[in-house]
């Protein structure tokens, strides 16, 4: 086992501990069992008249999800009958207590009482495939199949930091961190799982203003659903997580939003649909049926006339279990930031199918490369990993299956990308990522662990 693997496993065991505690609260890491007497739309909606070439090999699959807006396409595909329409009438959506639980349940698979796949932060599918975050570094091949969403995340801060210059750009706010360190009570922030999306967002936000997330603050892992409770105790200064939890912190008047990830990186990649490769290889038609259901749900979600209904579905007891109003305003691009700033701009809302740059659903390989490059930046992956990143991405990212499903579903040619790269990306601080030159991106960053 490499030094990195030892280091990595130690870090990720912290998450496993949080998972265990949260699992007790949720009656097991797969969530509460469904009411056997309740019939869902999926059970009552007849499948479309499917040709033998498109009829799925199985109607059953277990998909895990975390109760944040990234899960909406899976939930809507189930509740609106889109999975059933394509023959997937026995989709089990299993609420996960934490991202650690999601990883653990992916490892054991549905045969062991876990999941076949579902919703993942990036680059979890790659890390599981490579055995970086699994028990005993076991390699469990995964296929990344679609991006679920763009935007929908934020960095929330405790009320005590209002008016101190902590916005998207940390201007005069740098003194906050210096004073807390001098008092030996360092700024304490949390993300929901180390070395993935929500960890990267808060790291980028801090580092862009000259604050080193590894030395200038304390950065912990806390499950998404516990973020509000932890902020209420006064022990946390900041959280990086997905809606509805950042906005819930505002509506509960215990904090404010420093920034939305939509402000940090417009139309950024967020979370993804991925499945164990063994399930996909055994069930290629069922995989495409799932993708078609997700695509239809994503298009339905991007009709803003449907967002009130979407908020009500997601807010239900079986899913997020909170007031629909907490979801509704962010869904429409309306954010009371909690410190006097108000955003009312649909371009800041979550999008699921298309955004200003084109496809949201299609999994661009250039985005996989950014996540892996960022992993190298912070020492989560070794420096030489970039030399094999393309090989790993080609193995994990199955954009070819996405395209096949899109064509079978009758998606317009114009909505099917012709390149696996979305091109050069630009962040709020002016830094650019050219997927043809990831090393140049690393060189341009002032704060990083890797020497390049």
From TrEMBL:
BP GO terms, sorted: monoatomic ion transport
Region feature Disordered, mapped onto this chain: 36-55
PANTHER family membership: ALIPHATIC SULFONATES-BINDING PROTEIN-RELATED (PTHR30024), NITRATE_NITRITE BINDING PROTEIN NRTA (PTHR30024:SF7)
Keyword list, A-Z: Cell inner membrane, Cell membrane, Ion transport, Membrane, Signal, Transport
Compartment list: Cell inner membrane
Major place of residence: membrane
Family, as annotated: Belongs to the CmpA/NrtA family.
This protein's GO CC annotations: plasma membrane
UniProt xrefs under Pfam families: NMT1_2
Biased amino acid composition, Polar residues: 40-52
Signal peptide residues on this chain, from the entry's feature table: 1-20
InterPro entries: NrtA/CpmA_ABC-bd_dom, TAT_signal
The protein's name in its UniProt record: ABC-type nitrate/sulfonate/bicarbonate transport system, periplasmic component
């Amino acid at each position: 086992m490499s030094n990195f693997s030892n280091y990595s496993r130690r870090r990720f065991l912290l998450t496993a501990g949080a998972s265990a505690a949260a699992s007790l609260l949720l009656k097991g890491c797969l969530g509460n069992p469904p009411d056997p007497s309740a019939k869902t739309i999926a059970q009552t909606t007849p499948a479309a008249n499917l040709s033998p070439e498109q009829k799925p090999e199985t109607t059953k699959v277990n998909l895990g999800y975390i109760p944040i807006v990234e899960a909406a396409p899976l939930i809507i595909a189930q509740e609106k009958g889109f999975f059933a329409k394509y023959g997937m009438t026995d989709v089990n959506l299993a609420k996960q207590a934490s991202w650690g639980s999601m990883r653990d349940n992916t490892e054991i698979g549905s045969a062991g009482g876990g999941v076949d796949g579902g919703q993942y932060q990036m680059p979890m599918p790659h890390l599981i495939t490579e055995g970086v975050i699994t028990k005993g570094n076991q390699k469990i091949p995964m296929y990344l199949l679609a991006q679920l969403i763009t935007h929908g995340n934020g960095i929330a801060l405790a009320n005590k930091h209002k008016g101190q210059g902590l916005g998207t750009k940390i201007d005069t706010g740098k003194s906050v961190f210096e004073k807390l360190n001098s008092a030996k009570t360092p700024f304490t922030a949390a993300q929901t799982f180390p070395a993935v999306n929500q960890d990267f967002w808060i790291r980028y936000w801090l580092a862009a203003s000259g604050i080193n997330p590894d030395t200038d603050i304390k950065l912990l892992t806390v499950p998404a659903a516990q973020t509000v409770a932890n902020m209420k105790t006064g022990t946390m200064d900041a959280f990086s997580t997905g809606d509805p939890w950042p906005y819930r912190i505002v509506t509960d008047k215990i904090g404010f939003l420093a920034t939305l990830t939509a402000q940090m990186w417009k139309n950024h990649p967020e979370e993804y649909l991925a499945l164990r490769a063994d399930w996909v290889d055994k069930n290629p038609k069922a995989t495409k049926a799932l993708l078609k259901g997700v695509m239809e749900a994503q298009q339905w979600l991007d009709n803003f006339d449907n967002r009130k209904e979407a908020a009500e579905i997601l807010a239900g007891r079986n899913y997020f279990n909170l007031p629909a109003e907490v979801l509704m305003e962010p869904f429409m691009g309306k954010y009371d930031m909690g410190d006097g700033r108000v955003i009312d701009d649909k371009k800041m809302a979550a999008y699921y199918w298309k955004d200003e740059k084109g496809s949201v659903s299609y999994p661009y390989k250039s985005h996989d490369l950014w996540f892996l490059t960022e992993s190298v930046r912070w020492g989560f992956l070794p420096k030489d990993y970039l030399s094999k990143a393309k090989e790993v991405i080609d193995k994990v990212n199955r954009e070819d299956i996405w395209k096949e499903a899109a064509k079978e579903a009758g998606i317009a040619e114009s909505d099917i990308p012709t390149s696996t790269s979305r091109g050069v990306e630009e962040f709020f601080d002016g830094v650019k990522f050219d997927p043809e030159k990831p090393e140049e991106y690393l060189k341009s960053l002032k704060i990083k662990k890797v020497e390049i």
